[in-house]
Amino acid sequence: MSTAALVHVVVSGLATGSIYALMAISLVIVYNATRTLNFAQGEMLMVSTFVGWTAHQWLRLPLPLIMLVAVVAAALLGWLIERAVIRHSIAATHFDVLIITLGLSLVLRAAAVLAWTHDEFPFPSFFADRPIALGPVRVAPVSLGIIGGSLLLMLALYGLFRGTRLGRAMRAVAQNQRAARLMGISVERVYSASWILAAVVGGIAGVLIAPVIFLSSKMGLVAINGFTAAVLGGFGSMPGAVVGGMLLGVIENLAPLYLPSGIKHSVPFLLMIAILLVRPSGVLGRARRRKV
Amino acid sequence: MRARLVPFLVLLAAFAAAPAGAQQGVTDAEILLGGSNSFSGPLAFTGEQMTKYGIDLYFKVVNDGGGIHGRRIRTVYYDDGYKPQEAVANTKKLVEQDRVFAIIAPQGSPPVVATLGYLEEQKVPMLFPYQSSPVTRGKKYVFQGMTVSDRSSVMMIDYLAGQRKYKRFAAIYQDDEYGKSFLTAFEKDLGRHGLKLVASESVKRGVTDVSAQIAKLQAAKPDVTFLVLVPGPAAQALKERQKIGWTTTLMVSTGPLTDERYLALAGEAAEGVEGLSLWPDPLTSELPGVKLYRQHMQKYFPKNEPNRYSIAGYFAGMLFAEGAKRAGRALTRDSLIAALEGIKGFESGILAPLTIGPDHETQKQGFWVRVEKGRFKTLTDWLKSE
Questions:
Q1: Is B92 found in the same domain as B223?
Q2: Mind listing the pLDDT tens digit for each residue in A152-170?
Q3: A264: part of which helix (H) or strand (E)?
Q4: Beta carbons of A129 and B242 less than 8 Å apart
Q5: Backbone phi and psi for residue A186, each to the nearest 5 degrees, phi listed first
Q6: Residues of B in contact with A254 (CB under 8 A)
Q7: Does residue B316 sit at the A interface (CB-CB below 8 Å)?
């Protein structure tokens, strides 16, 4: 395999990996605040991307506005789901909520099929598919664009968590809900904000990846790799989610380069099992010790 | 004890309901046909177009023209959503409750395979199933609809290795029955030309990135790369090729893929892709049968745009009508089978003149096309598969 091809495959893997990372981040945001896994994350992404696309079909909006529509739709959906469903199950066990989100994912997918059929649709892209040459290496602007866009979003999230009152409140709730409440933080507001924020991250990821994997009611499946990425990096850790996502994207691409391509889908899971055996808390996860 | 009597009574009732001599599904005034098809699930668009806007379109024309030997044709369809177990239940219902004369144009290999044994056992004709696996061969009551994958392969390889003199072939294929049936056939037909596949890479459904597969194929330097995929991954593969600027291979899509929906997904990355087309372009072809099809569509369903699936259904309706006409007023299942087997050089105005014969295959030829400015441009006349 030539170096140029290798570089392309790695860059392409980093691009898909960025999307996995964004999915992992959205899952972690909800998990840290509410200790529940949101199985509907992928379907929320799918619905918001479809809404953006519909706006494009009707009004011929330019792409930045489509992104905006998708993000607003995602935020509304996140807010609505949290308000209408999740908050009412605040007293339920984590397992119950998990099943609720699983049910939500099925409902959202069925609704999307009714509204937008089973078809796959092309989605407009910010970036071109035609390669640009950097010396002997050719890279596709679309891959670089996805990586760049994702990194910017990650930086913005970092800023939000470190520098704002809301970010600090969210981190406080993640650490200790009771203590946070005693400090006067509105846990309900943090719940709501977490769902909205996670949905927005998903909404942006959806618009970035839709030109590559096409828009369809099945595109939410990309969230499954987000779960793997989050576990790889150490569930609950944001930098871990980023590292896990990138690692997963690259390995998923490198493995079939050297092994039969049928194995592509099993390698990440083999790796995940291996990492969990050696480091049960994930690559960057902090080992949790609970005092008895 | 009484419970044991029930099956016996049901059987008795069944005999009573079918007086000797009359054929199930055929009355003095009507022929009843049925089908299990996809009206939900991944092939819903295809199913709806093929049945309601294809088969039924042709039957509307026939019925408005006085029917066949004075009988009108009526159809009943149920949705199986591409699920084999649903297809079995639907088919049994059609045969045992609706008491149809024959099953027409069921869709997809898994549902069709699941019902083959039952229909053959019941001696109910399965007419023109829309799927490409060769599993339907050698059955007395089955007439295959779509071109079988090994026939497509013969036409593709003979054209590319024979006329076009290409030497190095590779394939990227769907990791399932569809992909593998083509791969096996390609290997066999390349063997006849003293060639073999220089590389083959598999893709699973729902894949997000095919860059590694395309990179490996490029490294093998094939003249021709076959795409044996469903539209989504195929469009991804074409875009991936564009991303790495790989221009030294001819991309060739398999028969079922030569369809406009896939062009729309791949956009400009589809330019220059070639393939075997099984149907003339329903929107632009000047063949007399296709023009007539467009007129009929305009008359009965003016809002529905002509497409390959509805024309496939329309053709299935036409073949049934031709068989039933030839079978005469005393239409039975066996006389229909004999009539269809006797079709020689039938001019549909849509496909090449058709001779069915004992192989029970109704579509044996295709022609070569290339994508130019987003439409398929015809490059050859009908290619031969035998």
A1: no
A2: 999 999 999 999 999 999 9
A3: none
A4: yes
A5: -80, 105
A6: 212
A7: no
